[in-house]
Recover the amino acids of this structure.
């Protein structure tokens, strides 16, 4: 936005507002006193804004703060204090604002945590479906900091200002005549957003919002949409249901998990996207152990197409390598190589809603897990360094729980009990912070390795792991 303002490219300004705030061309035109047709021409670049009075009208109509006005070459308003924008140093990838304000006018994360009403680890009282839609529209990787900044600005009052994108959805829920491509695109983006939020928010924080989203999709499917819309709705409902099934398992609700699994299977059949079932079985493989986990992965692979969907392919091959290694099968190394080749061809942020999690750090975590289970000390060190670097950069507590548990297991295998306990402690803390059943269950191998030892540090650690598992309830697996 700063670049667009400095270049006085009003078309790009309107495009950014349309893309990240979901504001229609008609609404922009009303704000700046231009027709919808003229707004469309400006956004396409067929008409250039050059007149000073039009720049003023745009700035006033969009209620630009003084930093934005000055970047556009206009004088600041008298009602607000001016401040100078540093035009030489700014982030290379600016975090987009959810309400059309430049990022420079948003509070930074540190000030929000220090002075705002929400704490860092609170499951914030925000409109989760809207937050998911915003997150789903971002092109870049969404880490915890980005999500924090977006959520921090989503007070009830602010959320009400972007109700316009959902007006057509509300009408569609009461009658099929209002269903259109824009509504479907918003629902698809929201499904992607929920998948992204899953790896930065605890399961309990997003489950209700995700359930509301699936209920709305179900209502629209029952309203008699056209075949084209029906297939798209079914596909996004299936993608959402696979995530809901996984989250329900994480929340110790096996009945709900099974119900959502059935929904995803029906949606896969209705939409013609059988690969949705690949995701369902891949998630299911985490809920079982040994040969059953390996078979679940193999079943998931049956739903892969002959070509394409390389991000899902890389994920499933990585899971196969992990489970082969757990069974002591050295074929795991060759399968891991195949996974790396598939990842090299993949575009995780362009393929499926569930592939957004896959990045070099997560691939390193898969490698680490595989080599730990095989007892390959040399490769454990290399993969461990890469995985730890990714965890440090992203503050992904769910991933950290797994990486630290694998490093703890590796240290115990080579006989370094003290270092093993240190990493196990970090794994437990990360699992507790993310409220991740998956992370806690991943510590089972560490518990088995420590069982023969009886010193105080070991007993305290095992006691804390057991207490955490009890507090979380029995595993549905």
């Amino acid at each position: 936005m700063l670049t667009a303002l400095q270049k006085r490219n009003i078309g790009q300004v309107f495009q950014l507002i349309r893309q990240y705030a979901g504001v229609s061309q008609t609404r922009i035109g009303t704000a700046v006193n231009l027709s919808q047709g003229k707004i469309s021409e400006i956004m396409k670049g067929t008409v250039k804004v050059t007149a000073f009075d039009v720049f003023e009208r745009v700035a006033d109509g969009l209620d630009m703060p003084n930093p934005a006005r000055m970047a556009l070459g206009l004088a600041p308003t008298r009602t607000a204090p001016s401040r100078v924008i540093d035009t030489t140093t700014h982030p290379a990838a600016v975090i987009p604002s959810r309400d059309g304000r430049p990022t420079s006018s948003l509070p930074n994360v540190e000030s929000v945590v220090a002075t705002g009403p929400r704490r860092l680890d609170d499951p914030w009282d925000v409109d989760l479906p809207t937050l998911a839609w915003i997150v789903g529209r971002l092109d870049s990787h969404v880490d915890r900091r980005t999500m924090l900044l977006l959520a921090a600005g989503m007070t009830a009052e602010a959320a009400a200002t972007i109700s316009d994108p959902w007006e057509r959805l509300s009408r569609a829920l009461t009658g099929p005549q209002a269903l259109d491509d824009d509504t479907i695109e918003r629902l698809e983006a929201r499904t992607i957003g929920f998948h992204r939020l899953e790896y930065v928010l605890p399961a309990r924080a997003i489950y209700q919002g995700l359930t509301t989203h699936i209920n709305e999709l179900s209502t629209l499917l029952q309203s008699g949409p056209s075949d084209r819309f029906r297939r798209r709705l079914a596909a996004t409902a299936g993608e959402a249901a696979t995530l809901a099934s996984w989250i329900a398992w994480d929340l110790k609700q096996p009945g709900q998990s099974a119900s959502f699994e059935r929904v995803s299977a029906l949606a896969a059949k209705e939409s013609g996207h059988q690969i949705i079932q690949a995701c369902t079985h891949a998630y299911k493989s985490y809920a079982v152990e040994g040969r059953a986990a390996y078979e679940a992965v193999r079943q998931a692979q049956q739903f892969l197409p002959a070509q394409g969907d390389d991000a899902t392919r890389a994920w499933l091959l990585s899971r196969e390598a992990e489970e082969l290694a757990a069974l002591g099968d050295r074929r795991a190394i060759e399968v891991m190589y195949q996974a790396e080749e598939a990842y090299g061809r993949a575009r995780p942020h362009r393929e499926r809603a569930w592939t957004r999690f896959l990045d070099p750090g997560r691939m390193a975590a898969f490698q680490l897990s595989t080599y730990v289970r095989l007892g390959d000390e040399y490769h454990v060190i290399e993969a461990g360094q890469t995985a730890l670097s990714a965890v440090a950069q992203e503050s992904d507590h769910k991933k950290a729980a797994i990486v630290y548990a694998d490093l703890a297991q590796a240290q115990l295998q080579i006989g370094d009990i003290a270092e093993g306990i240190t990493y196990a402690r970090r794994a437990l803390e990360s699992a507790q912070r993310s409220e991740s059943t998956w992370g806690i269950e991943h510590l089972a191998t560490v518990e088995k390795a420590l069982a023969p030892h009886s010193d105080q540090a070991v007993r305290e650690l095992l006691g804390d792991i057991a207490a955490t598992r009890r507090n979380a309830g029995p595993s549905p697996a």
